[in-house]
Amino acid sequence: MQEKYFIELFKLAEIAKKKNEVPVSALLVKNDKIIAKAYNTRQKTSNILNHCEILVIKKASKKLKTWHLNECDLYVTLKPCNMCESIIRQSQIKNVYYLLDKDESKKEYYKTNITKTNICTLEEQYSKYLKDFFQKKRQKSK
Predict the structure, then answer these.
(1) Which residues are known to be catalytic?
(2) What is the largest CA-CA distance in the chain?
């Protein structure tokens, strides 16, 4: 069963390659039916976020009218990067199947520093603000 999905992924990767994109592609499957497919479009769109995993999740969410994709499986040609993995987890995708691990020897290291600030009064205020927000949201959904 899975082989037919990977054959489709190769076709999509070939389209990406012809468009001078990195040939990585993804499918989202629900109840053994492909509901969305995508390939990378970062070069064409000049948008760093246009990884195939993100694009396929956006398409499926629009089609299913929900971002809760817990009844879906994701098939992708290359192991998802950290950004995509986080989005996949947040969209609650049930299973992810990938064909190839990334070549870790080619991993690039960026010099972005991410630092938590120490403005305690604002931290406390924002913490309370978020807790109140979600508490009200939960009350409305009951």
Answers:
(1) 53
(2) 56
Per-residue pLDDT reduced to its tens digit, 74-127: 999 999 999 999 999 999 999 999 988 876 545 556 676 666 667 677 788 888
Cβ(40)–Cβ(50) below 8 Å: yes
Whether the model clears a pTM of 0.85, i.e. scores above it, the answer is no
pLDDT digits (tens, 9 = 90+) for 46-78: 999 999 999 999 999 999 999 999 999 999 999
> 87, 57 in Cβ contact below 8 A?
yes
